[in-house]
Amino acid sequence: MTATNHTAPHPEPTPRRALVLFAHGARNPEWAEPLRYAQSVLSERLPDHTVTVAFLEFLSPTLTEAVMELAPTHSEIVIVPWFVAEGGHLQRDLPQLVNNLATRYPAVQFSCFPPIGTLEPVIRAIADAVVATLSAS
């Protein structure tokens, strides 16, 4: 009599998605505190995502450094440009960075949000905050 293995097959691992809040950076590290706060809020609201920050210059990690950490364990990386509008950095620098990263990590799917400041809910939230602040003074 032969033994039969009745164990269930291992399910495929769930693809892991990461969000990278990508900002310009500044020489003063305190400049990044609001971004790190947003990272914390998003981490709480999206517990099945890894949320991290990255900077174009002056602060660490860079986008390349952040992706180096994420790529081995994530199948999708979504870059959220923490910029008010689309200027030269988002027109030239970010596409070049993402193309280089996609070549280096072909198993990872990369995508980018539009600049955070151009999203309608963000514009409305800023307007609401300005109106509320003016009304309170």
From TrEMBL:
Gene that encodes the chain: cbiX
Entry's transmembrane regions: none
Lineage: Bacteria, Pseudomonadati, Pseudomonadota, Hydrogenophilia, Hydrogenophilales
Pfam family, one: CbiX
Species assigned in the record: Hydrogenophilus thermoluteolus
Molecular function, one GO term: lyase activity
Record keywords, A-Z: Lyase, Metal-binding
Descriptive protein name: Cobalamin biosynthesis protein CbiX
InterPro entries in the record: CbiX-like, Sirohydro_Cobaltochel/CbiX
